Write the structure tokens for this entry.
Amino acid sequence: MIRYLAHRIAMAALVVFVAVSVNFAIPRLTPGDAVEQQLAQLSAAGGQVGDVQAAAAAMRERFGLDRPIFEQYLSYLAHAARLDLGVSIAHYPERVSDVVLAGLPWTIGLLGTATLISFALGTLAGGLLAWPGAPRALKLALLPFVVLSAVPYFMLGIVLLALLGIAWPVLPVAGGFPFGHVPRLDLETAGLIVAHALLPALSIVLASLGTWAVAMRGMVVSVLGDDYITLAEAKGLGARRIFLAYGLRNALLPQVTQLALKLGHLVSGAILVEVIFAYPGLGYRLYLAIGQKDLFVIQGIVLLLSVSIALMMLLLDLIYPLIDPRVAARRS
């Protein structure tokens, strides 16, 4: 077990290293120059740039972009190992770590909660859709689930925004809390945050619910008639226990794998939802950084995404035996 754990940690570290290297290379391979674009935006806004070439050279020297690419790469690895993500080019001297820490709680609170809710409801509903003893009325939900599984997050978000935010303005349409409100640790602020999160969360839950349900239905169908279910029925076990402990549990592994990937992709999984609702999470901040060609902010957020995926897959390997003892038996 220790040898297996060491192997998985080494693989996760290798994945992070490759991701960090790719994260360094891709922004520098894209067309355009981040420094020149910042100066162009400043000039367009009426700022006094002066000698453009001198200003660009000064900015490149300040951010270390005038050094050889390999030296930049080694410096980037050293700073990433110390969790020093640098400073924002567009909003100097704001640090990238401050940008990430400001958006991370919003993203985890919204997308994490919405993903877990949709996973739990969709998995249970999908299992019941395939189970022979389930209520017949539940079978009518299959078609809506199939339709929902084909609707993207952002499309459903636009529909909900038009209906519940504009046509019938019952919910806030943008932001994490009302403009001008000073957040405090009290029930009023908590209620405002929940109210502003309802529309984006609802779009994510509804759009994901159908995907989870349809996938789980197919996996439960594949285990029906297996020997362990037949044996459980022959032993006279209750229908609920057979469904939960034998049917649902043995069909759950692919769902858990997908859940780990979804949680690892929280930052990028619903960027357009955060953009539509101007929600102050990491996805919205990444969108703004891409528009401003803010190189170091893009690198910092994408690095967080890469590390989170590697950590979620490592965690997944550790909890697999708890879900299915057959995995532990194959490892021993």
User: Anything to note?
Assistant: Residues 40 and 49 are 9 Å apart (CA to CA). The chain has a mean pLDDT of 79. The longest helix spans residues 187-223. The chain has 16 helices and no strands.
